[in-house]
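Can't paste images in this forum, so I'm doing it all in text. The chain is below; anyone willing to post the predicted structure tokens underneath?
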Amino acid sequence: MGCRVLPGSARRRQTLAALACLAVVVACGNLPKLAKPPARPGPNLLLIVADDLGWGDVGFHGSRIETPRIDQLAAEGLELRRFYVNPICTPTRAALLTGRSPMSLGLLYSGISRMRVDAGLARDEYTIAEYFRAAGYSTALVGKWHLGAVRSEYLPNPQGFELFYGQLGGLTDYYSHRFGKVLDWQENGVPLEVEGYATDLLGERAIRFLRERDPARPFLLVLSYTAPHWPYNAPSAELVAKYRQLGLPHPRNQYASVVEAMDASIGQVLDVLRKQAIAENTIVVFLSDNGAAMAHQAGRNRPFRGGKLSVMEGGIRVPAVIRWPSRLPAGARSEQRMRDVDLFPTLAAAAGLEPPSGSLDGRNLWPTLVSGDEIPRRPFLFAADNLRATGTSFAALGDRWKLVVREGPDGQRMELYNLSRDPWERFDVSRKHPKVVERLNAEIERWKASHPRDGLRWNEREKALAHAEAGADWSSMTEVLRDPENLRTHLEDPERYLQRPPER
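Text version of the structure:
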């Protein structure tokens, strides 16, 4: 495997962008409102994020896909059985890094899949990387960013990461590292032509960071895999054949091979922690950014209903584990309702740091995770309309009740589920509990009003144009562009215009 820096004007443009990133950091001195470093170094932090991994796609949830290293994390750590995220990539990543609701950030409704769209995480947002960096931590993000690309201030380095290696957008091929004709692979703003499988490259760069870091400083490493997101490029024909022989049809056999390759890469990273004798003092968190996409029927969110781009449980309730061998019980399960915005304040507390100043939407749940007690929470709020030509769905999820509100051309429809009895969302009981519906809907309406007027929100036709802009050659996408009426008839399945990937 190797890489080369792009020559010519492309390299000069990207180098200037990287220098601009550094200039923004220096000029702004953007490490404000920081806690004092602790008297002794805190725990290391490793946050592993899978991309579109379903609830039912890990071994410890009964999957036929082999994930021994992720299963080992669950056996050695605390499984978070009710961990929630947003139903699409960008808002979840924004929430994880800032501890704030993506609604108030203006990044709730749409993923930033279009490399030229002028949107991203605002420079004045205070991130988990800035916070821990000011407390003496080395900071790195290896993998997928998906929080803006067209302005230098949107990029990971000005947001507190000393190292960024990976891709800025999504839907990138695992081998060419391109979205259509657009190269999307870089290190600290400098584009790279690399050879190798994306999952392997990310794991190897994470390991290199661990080996080259200053051992006197604790670290925050965000390892954000692009797997198992479409296009499901398999790491080898042998792995695909293995799952075909187990009876998994196409494209699930490809998807399974992508998941297994990610699991192996995670294991290699975890092995380095042990070899460096730092596993006992490293908090490892594993989660998916949303549920598996249902368009290709490759991932599984069973036993839950729905998937990515849906506010049903299958789209927002994901496999999640936290491990700190010396502090958290091994092999235990937590039913505490927790979500993406809670990780920032929770990890800060676990590290023994002063809580971040400012208004975070997340809550410190470290005492709850340690004690095993459960505390009531205000309703969690969700929305999904990216890629949808048929309307927007909202959800308000409490400890017991969950209200789903569907808004579309034919008006509004409300569904109420009692998750304590019906976590599979099979029985709508809205008519039996009108006061609960009214209360939770009021929460949704107040929340909707907080969306910034200039927040990102773009429709399906713009999404299709983004793919055309990248030079993608998908005939079904061309059909969408030719006849806008097809948006409703052909895109009930939100990714239908993406052709099924070729089998390797």
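The chain has one domain: 9-371. The CA atoms of residues 239 and 257 lie 5 Å apart.
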